[in-house]
Amino acid sequence: MPIYEYSCEKCKATFSVLQSVGSGDKGTRCTECGSTRVKKLFSSFACSTSGSGGGTDFSGGGFSGGT
Ligand SMILES: [Zn+2]
Description:
The chain is mainly beta and 67 residues long. It is 0% helix and 27% strand. The structure holds zinc ion. Zinc ion binds next to loops.
């Protein structure tokens, strides 16, 4: 599960939130002032792979074909 880094635009506090992949930053509140005006800075995975922008990892995908 990735950790998203947020920066509050209200109190300028930075905090990290553990979110599941796919969930937007809606509802994310500042841990300091509770404001929803937060800006996502970056996300850091526990196991980051080398390379930038690899998004075609379909290993182990169910590929059912044939008649
Ligand atoms: Zn804040």
